[in-house]
Amino acid sequence: MKITFLGAAGEVGRSCIMIEEDGTRVLLDSGIKLGKKIEYPELDKETLKGVDGIVVSHAHLDHSGYLPHIYSIGYDKYAYATKPTFELTNVLISDYMRISNPEEITKQGLSAMQKKHKIVEYGEEFRIKNLRFRLLTAGHILGSGMVEVSSSKEKLLYTGDFNLATSKLLEPASNQGLKIDTLVTESTYSGKDDVFKPEKVTMDLMVNSLNDTITRGGKAIVPSFAVGRAEEILLLLDDYMKSGRLQKVPIHIDGMIGKAMRIHRHNVIYCRDELQKRILMNDDDPFKSTNFNVIKTRGERKNIINSSESSIIVTTSGMLTGGPVINYLQSLAKDTKNKLILVGYQAVGTPGRELFDGKKEIQIEDKTIKVGLEVNTFHISAHADRPHLVNFIKSLKGLKNVYAVHGEKAKAEEFVDYINQDHKHNAVAPELGSSYNT
Questions:
Q1: Please, is 397 exposed, middle or buried when counting C-beta atoms within 10 Å of its C-beta (0-12, 13-18, 19+)?
Q2: Read out DSSP for 296-315?
Q3: Residue 315 sits in which domain range?
Q4: Which end of the chain has fewer CB atoms < 10 Å from its terminal CB, N or C?
C-alpha cells in the first residue's frame, strides 16, 4: 500500500492523505489550514482526476474544508462519512464561505458537493473499487470516525482526530481487538509533557475562575470551536450551574454553535447512552437548557457587550481567527474585570496562540486589539494525550508501521523517536509531500 502525505505532515491542519493499492486511489480527509493565511493540501488537479473517492473522518474544517474546492474544479466521485459529519460539515463550510469568501469555490461546486456524498454507519463495510473501508467510533466529535482500510494484502488504520477518554457527549474511540499492519495517527498532544488532568479537575479550576470573574462584575469570553468543544463546555457549565457550584448568570451562545447544538440534538443516537436516556426517557434536554441564551442578532450582541450584568459568553471562533469573538474582544478586552478563557488547541500563527503565549496586543482582520483582561487556559481536550497514544499503539495487534501526523513537527519527531526505542515498530514523522510503501 502506498501512502502519500498531502497535508498535516509536521503541522496541525489541512489533513489529506492519499492511499493507493490494487489499482485504487482514495483520499482520507480533505482539509484546510486556518491561520493568518489559509493553506490547502498539496493536491493538484491532475492527481485529483485519478482519485476514486474521499473518506472524511469528521467535520472540522482542517479535515473537511477543502471539499468545496475539490468539487469546484470538477471532481465527480463520492465522499463517504457518517450522517452527523455531513450535516456538521455543511454548517462549518457555510461559515467558512461567509468569513473567508474563497474565490475558487463556485456555486456549481457547492451543489456537486451536496449531491456526491454517501452516508455510512459505524462498523459498516463499504468499498471504493478494490479497497474495503470501515468507520470506527473516534470519540472526538459527533459522527467522527477512525478509518480502517483493507486491501487484499494488508490493513491500515487512520485515526483522524480521536479521543480515548469518555466525554460528556461521547463514548471513547474503539480500541478493542484491532489487528492492523499500518497506523496513521494524529500526534496533536504527543509531547512528553502532554498529560491531561482528569476533566473534573480541570472543570473545577475553570469554574473557580468563572466565579471569580462573576464576583468582580466581569464577563468571561470562552472562544470555542462550534462543533465539539462548544457543546461539551456548555453541557458541563450547565451541570455546574444547576448544582450551584457555578454562580447563576446568563450563558450566551454566539456564532454557529446554535446550529451545531440542534444537529447534536437531532443526532443524539450518536451520543453516549447516558445522554440519550436523559433526553429520550427523562425529558431532561441539556441542549435546550434555560441557562442558555442563543444570540440571534447583532443588536442582541451589542446589548450584551454594553450590559453591566456579568455573563459567560461562549462563542466562535476557537482560535480567534474570525467570527463573533472579535466583536466581544474589541469591546471587552481592555477591561481588567473581564476574562478570556481558552479551552481548546491554539495553532501556531493564530491570535489565540499569541494570547496563549502571553502577547498583550493582537491583530485580527486588520484590527489591532490591546488586551488588558486576564487570559486563562483550561484544557478540555477531545484528543488523545501522550499516555493514551502510547497505550493505543501498544494495544494494536500485528502493528508494523506508525506514521505520526497532525502534530507540530518537534512533537511528532520526538514521539516517533520514543516509539522506535522498543524496535518493535517502524515509526516515522513524514514530511509534507512524502510517499511510503508499506
A1: exposed
A2: -SHHHHHHHHH--S-EEEEE
A3: 199-377
A4: C
